[in-house]
Amino acid sequence: MASLEVRGEPSCIEVLDFKAGAGQFGVIAGPCSVESEDQILQTARAVKAAGATALRGGAFKPRTSPYSFQGLKEDGLKMLAAARDETNLAIVTEVMGTGDVDLVAKYADVLQIGARNMQNYRLLEAVGAVGKPVLLKRGASATMDEFLLAAEYILNEGNPDVMLCERGIRTFEEHTRFTLPLASVPYLHRKTHLPVIIDPSHGTGHTYMVPDMAVAAVAAGADGLILEVHPDPSSAMSDGYQSLNFEGFERTMQRVNVVRQAL
Ligand code: PEP
Ligand code: MN
């Protein structure tokens, strides 16, 4: 169902002001985790002013350590919904388990499936049945075939609105947190009609690399970006070392727009 050959043309996913695919470019920006109402509202205003069309923010966080901050759960979802009410940004947030799908879907516009859950087939079916767009992140050790077959689980439930997110894979290399293969963009565009979103934040794990890789993703033909942005990255409760501040995000967007216009 993800096949470009079968559908014949690329698909565009549209929700509120966000559009990605078939020539439309969508930018999802916001903190790794929702931390407070003030943090998410400030960020929503700043990223919207710089050109984002969707707001990200985790309320259910898949942390490597069970002792790390796990997210504000429903309180965080309510803060995201309040930010949408003010800005009209589409809300993109992760759902970690089948038991949370209805709760997250009540507040979110796009359901994010995290890398760690890419092959959680019951969860893929559950989000497929909800009827809201899904951002499916590539598993850190998943092949492209496995990634595309995971998307099939969602599409098979009758939900056509799946975006594929390349967020980097695990390799022997350690100078970046993951290895971000931008060849995924032309490969997936040849194989599938689904929009391809690049995540240079998780893909590199270093703030200083994010702008350059965001620009490179655009040049490679990506249909959108997902970027971690925080009012004060040094005090972030998760992933601050790979987050842009507001100024860094604005400058990145300026460069992204220059490259988009040149394509
Ligand atoms: C995230 O988007 O904050 C996240 C946890 O991403 P991933 O599932 O790609 O690690
Ligand atoms: Mn993160």
UniProtKB/TrEMBL annotation:
Keyword terms of this UniProt record: Transferase
Record domain DAHP synthetase I/KDSA: where: 18-255
UniProt name for this protein: Phospho-2-dehydro-3-deoxyheptonate aldolase
Segments passing through the bilayer: none
The protein's enzyme class: transferase
One Gene Ontology term of the molecular function aspect: 3-deoxy-7-phosphoheptulonate synthase activity
Organism: Novipirellula herctigrandis
Keyword Transferase attached: yes
Gene Ontology biological process terms, A to Z: aromatic amino acid family biosynthetic process
Keyword Transferase in record: yes
EC number from the UniProt entry: 2.5.1.54
Gene: aroF_2
